[in-house]
Amino acid sequence: MTAGEVSALRRRALILVLLLIGLGGLAVFWKIHAPSDVAGFTALLSELRLSAGELPVWAAVGCILLASVAAVPLGAIIVVSALLFGPWLATAYILTGATLGGAISYAIGDYLGHRGLERFAGERINRVSRRLAERGVLSVVIIRLLPIAPFAIVNMIAGASHLRGRDFILGTLLGMLPGTLVISFLITRMHYWLLG
Predict the structure, then answer these.
(1) pLDDT per residue as tens digits for the range 131-188
(2) φ, ψ at 72 (rounded to 5°)
(3) Per-residue pLDDT tens for 16-43?
């Protein structure tokens, strides 16, 4: 490996580390500053509902895309979307927006490269990466069903791994579908039951 390649690899590894730290910081910020009581959440929801009724589809999907890239927890995105749009539209918007957001984060990880991830995390991550790639779609479905890390961080790591893009996108859609539908319908029912 030439000195230029080593320098480029170090630069990409540093960018990956900084992005992961930044996304982790955004997730912590959201956790700290999200409304903590019912009154605060209800006020926020009322304000959002007024705006959401006027949003075109592309804007709703775009907001979900941005939220997923910015490491807003997927559970929060699902709850707010279900309350704003109802369970069916919310599911369609979330699957579209979060998958597109996931593809962007995946592309960032892919750009940063597998070598940068391996250099940052070591040979062990290389073995994990190869195992994930062997199982393709199934491994992504399992990762989506188990909330092991923030969505955006998992997407970037998947992009930097050996996992193929089409397996990532299909696995993301299949893995998010059941949880998104169930949570959307439960939240909508609970909202009507509690608040009429």
Answers:
(1) 777 778 888 888 888 766 677 777 888 888 888 889 999 999 999 999 999 999 998 8
(2) -70, 130
(3) 667 667 767 766 766 776 666 656 666 6
Residue 92 in contact with residue 78, Cβ under 8 Å?
Answer: no
According to DSSP H, which parts of the chain are helical? Answer: 3-33, 38-52, 57-69, 74-85, 87-112, 114-121, 123-135, 137-145, 151-160, 165-195
Query: For residue 35, what are the CA distances in angstroms to 30, 44, 130?
Result: 9, 8, 40
Name the CA dihedral angle for 70, 145, 87, 76, rounded to a multiple of 10 degrees.
Answer: -30
Give the separation between CA 156 and CA 69, rounded to whole angstroms.
Answer: 10
Contacts (Cβ under 8 Å, ≥6 apart) of 84? 45, 48, 49, 52, 90
Name the pTM for this structure.
0.70
Q: Which two tokens stand for residue 93?
A: 């918007």
First to last CA, the chain: 66
